[in-house]
Design a protein that fits this description.
- By secondary structure, the chain is mostly beta strands.
- It has one domain: Beta Barrel (Lipocalin), CATH 2.40.128.
- Helix content is 13%, strand content 42%.
- Strands 1, 2, 3, 4, 5, 6, 7, 8, 9, 10 and 11 form an eleven-stranded antiparallel β-sheet that branches.
- The longest helix has 10 residues.
- The chain is globular.
Amino acid sequence: MGAIGVSSVAIAGPQQDFMQAIAAHCGKAFEGKVTSGNEEDSGFASQTLVMHVRECEPEQLKVPFHVSNDHSRTWVITQTETGLRLKHDHRHEDGSEDAVTMYGGDTADKGTSSEQSFPVDAESIANFKQNGLDRSITNVWHMYITPTQFTYRLTRENRDFRVDFDLTKPVALPPTPWGHE
């Protein structure tokens, strides 16, 4: 699982505090529910949603997001020279990478110890366009953490998808995400 602490080499202040707040839950899983969304998100609302703070290395956190029996998604939060980077590692059941994977973005500012936002980066825009997902080229991902709740949110024009996870009630650990050991 790796160390629970988060290095202050690349970042300090609110971003380091944000990473440490997530890392404090390393090895635990939590159930969530959709609290905002539209028709595009209706398939998530009826599913069991579980985040698992699975890997906590000094400069990177890996948090699989399980949607019932779909174990294809892992959020990868990495410290960079200028802040934080969020990437979405999407895999097929056989472990191979999805055509749309490792998309996300870097923080544009320091954020706060409880909130970070990740506007879509150029590499992700190119991947979205290549795969017919032009509607995603203005994505901004947000993550929020308090002592009792973690929130994953995706915003863009005509979409505000949000899942809130209850950090006060750990749940049974889900299976290993696809493509990971």
